[in-house]
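Protein chain data
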Amino acid sequence: MQGKKTYQEKLFMSFRLSDRVPEDNFYRQLSKTLDMKWLYKATRSYYGLEGQQSIDPVVFFKLILIGYFENLCSDRKIISTASMRMDMLFFIGYDIDEELPWHSTLSRTRQLYDKDIFKQLFQKVLAQCIEKGMVAGNRQAIDSVFIKASASMDSLVARGILADGLTYADNLCEQEQENKTKLNDKYRSTTDSDARVSTKPGKPSALNYLAQVSVDTGGHVITNIDVHHADKSDSQCLKEVLEHTQSNLRANGLVIEEILADTGYSSGAALQCLEDKKIEGYIPNKSGYKTDRKGFTYNSNKDEFTCSKGAILSFISRVPGNGDRYKRVYLSSKNDCTACPLREQCIGKSFNKKITVSEDKDLYEKMSRKLRTPKGKRMCRLRGSTVEPVLGTLVNFLGMKRVNTRGLALADKCATMAALAYNLKKLLKFREPKPKTIKLGLPKPKMAEKSLFYTYIMYRFPQRMEAAIRCNYNYMLN
């Protein structure tokens, strides 16, 4: 007979939320691991002594964490999702009949607290990871990722004519569309003034922020995360990223010895920063860098170049470099190049030959030699396998694809909470490695000893005589 379930809502007189949440539930395990009681003292100065009670600081941070664990980029979705999940209610300390805070409370509280509170929470979880032995600390991999801002390109207006209300599309001609480098100097967003126009190869321009992430190569734990304006280069951010990462690790007795990064972090200033901090770096030089000048010989005593035809290129001036501190310019004489048979191949329609050399050439050469070694090649592979999966997890599964806030400070808070959620997941999944057992290799018995052993079996168990004889026979064959 076909069954039919009839449902009639009941009023339960006896119900405990803790009985309905399994012991192995993620949020139940997290509530045992994460201690946030220190937040009451840390956030006390943000409140007065009278008036309505605010949202509990611990409840606020737990709700924000739920948003990142569940990849929810909206405060409304956080509240609506938590209200339907018993394990989440148990995690934040609410019963099923209690009303959750209004979604706008999360937004106002996020703006109320300074980012130092968010950084302290991140550092305390990082300290737990270090205490568990998940972080080696001596080698860090660094990379960056764009985070979409909560603003569209239509909100861009020219900086000098804001009163006219002319938009980015109205003022931007085709020539300016091609020159993206100066776009942020001419236009800004009226929705989010801290967002900057940036783009990836093959993708359209968008208003973004730039997140810089440091990851430990030992346990793939995030040791630092910062958010910068999207129009800054990676090399410009390296010094600040190093200082913050060093501070986080030094507080737990760890010292950085090696840094792994991609080509975007290569510049004379960045390499000099590593030298000053006595940190071994593995950063490939940019593709445009030339280790030598084919057809030209440099004379260090006279500080000049000589071409294959004998023309002299003398030092002319020092100019500021793009990413380098300064560049030295060498120029040949017009008379030397006029009748040269290689003129078309060398300078084309120019009047003389110009060579520009970075004053940080020694740093680039040292890095180039280092990366050609077996260890250098191995470090380049290690960087990609360490930090890039972490960035993919943050963007695709932990709510860091787009920020639901406006302003650089709030974007930094969002990125910090995403990194915190990542480390907490790593912490809960971590298991202490089992001690390795040492196998003692005993010498193989000799033929006579084995024969005596099988003879003993035949004597001790006569009922299994046939099996013992067969075993002995097979041994003799082998």
